[in-house]
Amino acid sequence: MEIEVITVGGYEEVGRNMTAVRCGKDIVIFDMGLRLDRIMIHEDAEVENMHSLDLIQMKAIPDDTVMNGIEGTVRAIVCTHGHLDHIGALPKLAHRYNAPIISTPYTTELIRQQIAGEQKFGVNNKLFALKAGGKYTISQNLTLEFVRTQHSIIDSVMAVLHTPHGAIIYANDFKFDRTPVIGEPPDFARLIQIGKEGVLLLITECVNITSKGRAPSERIARDLVRDVITSFEDDKNAILVTTFSSHVARLKTLTECAHEIGRKPVLLGRSMERYSTTAEQMKLVAFPKSTSVFGNRRTVDRIFRRMMKEGKEKFMPIITGHQGEPGSVLTRIGAGDTPYRLEKGDKVLFSAKVIPNPMNFGQRYLTETRLRMTGARIFDELHVTGHAYREDHYDFIHMLNPQHIVPSHGDLKMTAAYAEFASELGYTLQKDVHLMTNGQRLTVHK
Ligand SMILES: [Zn+2]
Questions:
Q1: Type and span of the H or E element at 389
Q2: pLDDT tens, N- to C-terminus, the chain (446 residues)
Q3: 39, 222, 234, 409: which could form a disulfide with 205 (CB 3.0–4.6 Å)?
């Protein structure tokens, strides 16, 4: 049986991930992601209404036209977690394949919402929720298994495709967090076992390959956040926190810290509402009872008016806008575009890092400058990453001992850095560690 990897997207950028694996006549697609900064450049772009070919031209979604030349049948579309750079292009591309979309329960729910918001295409692929630890028979020769991992969104897994020639592991994205805030640590025992059974190919993320050591646990982020928030107990000034709305573990930490200092946690913003409410309804997280959530602009402004009347010190808003995104709650506050007024001594906490691209730097600078002009104090980088560091990758390779590796989920600087790292561990470039770009094909020999 011939095994081929088609690196469709996410090999020249962080975003728009899509990889296909063909085993004989059966094809499995991993992820269909969206690259958000490509859409933000076009300010008037309304993604829900756009055609996939236009989005491909903007390099916002993977160029899956390469799939036309691949002989075989797509049997499944598999998504490992609910970040938009992994599921965001499903509404534009999935309908072209007559195959179910398989993902973890929380991811499946987010995908359902993504597809429901689509205006241009009718996406009728069957959604199948597979829990971490679960298996799914794809064809006579192929079985899919989800292995529990940790990342900056809950219910993340590594996808393992068991083939007659050994396992193919798709590890986008992961972090080896041994003391997570929500859920269990990665299933190391199972990974080691799969390594013993034989791994033909590892397709792995590499965004933090140049960071030395291990990625700090989410417990460290909790300590950072708590250390700052609980030092203001008797303070009468506002405390405003912005973070990734999809980072449910962080939202849990923030709401608990607010509760601890006697302030009501209030989650604000459309995406904040979507991720937190979905997680809560699925009983994947429990926020303190005093927590409330408001999504749309009108209700956000109404609760802001209430805060101004009752006293800002009674609340802790947790809001969108850590990258200075236009239209987000923090950006609107900075622009004086909400009833919520900041004044001297008020505090704005960023439980996030700037995602490094020039547009984010610019927008973040603008927002931060406006906030400072009100006299607000800024507390930055109360955050840890969701992606493995160099020594995590070292451990990973030693657990699996893969015959071949394809670094993915990064630009060429990152994938090349990974290839260099792998060559230090005994791999040889283009023989068993393969540098790929978008739209390429690789036949994997045992
Ligand atoms: Zn991710």
A1: none
A2: 999 999 999 999 988 999 999 999 999 999 999 987 766 655 555 777 888 888 998 899 999 999 999 999 999 999 999 999 999 999 999 999 999 999 999 999 999 999 998 888 889 999 999 999 999 999 999 999 999 999 999 999 999 999 999 999 999 999 999 999 999 999 999 999 999 999 999 999 999 999 999 999 999 999 999 999 999 877 889 999 999 999 999 999 999 999 999 999 999 999 999 999 999 999 999 999 999 999 999 999 999 999 999 999 999 999 999 999 888 999 999 999 999 999 999 999 999 998 877 888 899 999 999 999 999 999 999 999 999 999 999 999 999 999 999 999 999 999 999 999 999 999 999 999 999 999 999 999 88
A3: 409
Non-local (6+) Cβ contacts of 370 within 8 A are 334, 335
CA distance 167 to 393: 18
Q: What is the DSSP letter of 126?
A: P
How far the first Cα of the chain sits from its last, in Å, is 10
Which residues have CB under 8 Å from 57's CB, separation 6+? none
Q: Which of 69, 65, 61 is nearest to 22 (CA)?
A: 69
Handedness of CA 80, 84, 86, 89 (dihedral sign): positive
pTM beyond 0.85, yes or no: yes
Tell me the β-bridge partners of 351. 243
Q: How many residues does the chain have?
A: 446
Q: Please, are residues 444 and 241 in contact by the beta-carbon 8 Å criterion?
A: no
What DSSP assignment string belongs to 254-319? HHHHHHHTT-EEEEESHHHHHHHHHHHHTTS----TT-EEE-SHHHHHHHHHHHHHH-GGGEEEEE
Calculate helix-pair angle for 270-281, 105-116, nearest 10 degrees.
140
Q: What's the CA-to-centroid distance between 29 and ligand 1, angstroms?
A: 17
Report how far Cα 337 is from the mean position of its chain's Cα atoms. 29
The structure tokens 């699996």 sit at: 400
Element (H, E) at 8: strand 3-9
173 appears as a binding residue in the annotation: yes
383 is known to lie in a ligand binding site: no
Q: Say if residue 247 carries a ligand binding annotation.
A: no
Cβ-contact 216, 208 below 8 angstroms: no
Cα of 82 from ligand 1 centre, angstroms: 7
| Residue 173: cis peptide before it, omega within 30 degrees of 0 | yes
